[in-house]
Amino acid sequence: MSLSRRRLLGGLSAIGAASAVGIQILAGVRGSSSTGELLPSRIGLPKPFRLPFRVPPVLAPARSDATGDYYRVTQRAALVEILPGVRTPIWGYEGLFPGPTIRSVRGRRTVVTHTNELPVPVVVHLHGGHTPAGQDGFPADLLYPAGWTGDMMTGGVMAHGRRDYVYPMTQPAATLWYHDHRMDFTGPAVWRGLAGFHLISDPAEDALGLPAGDRDLPVMIADRSFDADGSLRYPSLDPSLLHTPGVREPYGSGVLGDVILVNGVPWPVAEVPAARHRLRLLNASNARRYRLTLDPPGPLVQVGADGGLLESPVAQEAVEIAPGERFDVVVDFGRYRPGQVVTMRNEFGDHTTTAVMRFRVGAAVPDPSRVPDRLAPAPAAAGPAVMTRDLRFRHGKVNGMAGWTINGAAFDPARPAATPRLGDTEIWRLSSDFHHPIHLHLASFRVLSRGIGGPGPYDQGPKDTVDLRPAEQASILVRFADHPGRYVFHCHNLEHEDMGMMGVFAVRP
Ligand code: C2O
Ligand code: CU
Ligand code: CU
Q1: I need a labelling partner for 227 at 20 to 30 A (CA). Which of 32, 64, 384, 486 fits?
Q2: From ligand 3's centre to the CA of 463, what distance in Å?
């Protein structure tokens, strides 16, 4: 039992009777498309569609050799302008929010040396990476700041000042992202800015002719709220993020912001030539789900999911995206008139959260891109499932206090909930009470069914996060290939994750 975990329980006891909290949680989810509670900003918000869209800078390798590329990232506090004329303190990779984009090529090892200049320990997780256990960002494998004199947590691998994360990058092309994953404090750390893209390309994908270069746009969507002084508002019990984890009620069901940031810019507008563009949609919000549409309507042609390309493109009228999920879509702005304005809306939003961003369509230009009918080979047939596990994701008591549980238990890094054998295929039957986007580290999976039906319209392709809606059951087929060791699976509503809804699976060699 770690120091931190005991403090979690102590911290949550401060907020009062569990039953009252339960009622507040119910009030926070009834009839809504996200499980969470709106935290209003206390500062005047800008009008949407006034600020330019921008793409996070691509990080250049510090060096490269025959087998790989070596990057350096410093995590530090910075002051940035998010709202016009307002300075906002953030925590960022290279002092940026989003962090710089890292681009890997399949087959070339990627080594990222992280230096921690923040006032707290950190953990870096590459979400979607098929990563060896020691490099995956297990929530107790902490990277402390240099010269740390505070408390130390036991039960994990620790480093001081800096450490390398080594990624073999043997997996197919995909849109991954990296973010903080410290046990009990992931929600506030990501909210403060610790998130960035990590894209993998491969020659097979390059040969398809999908929109590329400056027509390949990463789109990180994240809601935030701002305080009167311009700082990011978040209801931490302990704003130092050192001692007591958790959030004030009624935010234990999830924190929803009222400002929609796209790549760190509130409701931006992108000038785009009238040509096909690839949008790599990532929901990096703590708790908010989105239903994204274009206005005037136009298809979002889905070419990829969390773990890589679909077998064939799917024209979606809308994309429903939960925290942690990615959808790679192609939008043909050549279908619109030059000068036309196309708005990406969130049909799950209200008031300020109905708008996401806008595109202003420029002149017609030559467009060599295409979207072929075949994008990727069918997945290799998995062996027969050797076992079926039932995992229930529910609101529940965590040592007598309100929290979130898996099969009735809160996260315990020392007690695996599942011990699959390396190479085995299993079926996991996941069920929910509220909205719980369930994410597995290490392995991509396929969604087999939802309830008594087949997979839903947003379940196609290789997934690492499945968007469970209230009182829903989904079955996934997962093969524990690649690496043995200790990994986590959890709800990607980050407040749920921090308040217990995470489990360990240990892959036996
Ligand atoms: Cu996006 Cu366990 O993480
Ligand atoms: Cu992950
Ligand atoms: Cu959840």
Answers
A1: 32
A2: 17
**Which pair of tokens denotes residue 52?**
């330019």
The Cα 37–Cα 347 span in angstroms is 17
Q: Tokens standing for 317? A: 């009228």
How is residue 387 written in tokens?
Answer: 């076992």
Sign of CA dihedral 403, 325, 225, 102: positive
Say which amino acid occupies 243.
H
CB-count exposure of residue 19 (10 Å: 0-12, 13-18, 19+): exposed
pLDDT band at 108 (very low <50, low <70, confident <90, very high): very high
- Residue 127 near ligand 1, beta carbon < 6 Å: yes
pLDDT of amino acid 473: 97
Q: How far, in Å, CA of 459 to CA of 461, rounded?
A: 7
CA of 486 to the centre of ligand 2 (A): 13
**How far is 292 from 316, CA to CA, in rounded Å?**
10
Greatest Cα pair distance, the chain, in angstroms, is 64
**Measured from the CA of 128, which atom of ligand 1 is nearest?**
1
Does 386 score more than 70 pLDDT?
yes
- DSSP output for 416-445: EEE-PBTT-EEEEEEEESS-EEEEESS--E
The answer on pLDDT for 93 being more than 60 is yes
Cα–Cα–Cα angle for 422, 423, 426, rounded to 5 degrees: 95
Instruction: Write phi, then psi, for 128 (nearest 5 degrees).
Output: 100, -5
Instruction: From residue 103, give the alpha-carbon distance in Å to each of 158, 180, 196, 239.
Output: 27, 19, 11, 33
Short-list 321, 301, 446, 450, CA closest to 378 = 446
To the nearest 10°, report the CA torsion of 448, 452, 456, 460: 10
Distance CA 192, CA 95 (A): 11
Atom of ligand 1 nearest to the CA of 177: 1
The structure tokens 């390949």 sit at 216
Q: Which domains does the chain have, with CATH numbers?
A: 63-204 (2.60.40.420), 213-364 (2.60.40.420), 387-507 (2.60.40.420)
Q: Is 181 in the pocket of ligand 1 (CB under 6 A)?
A: yes
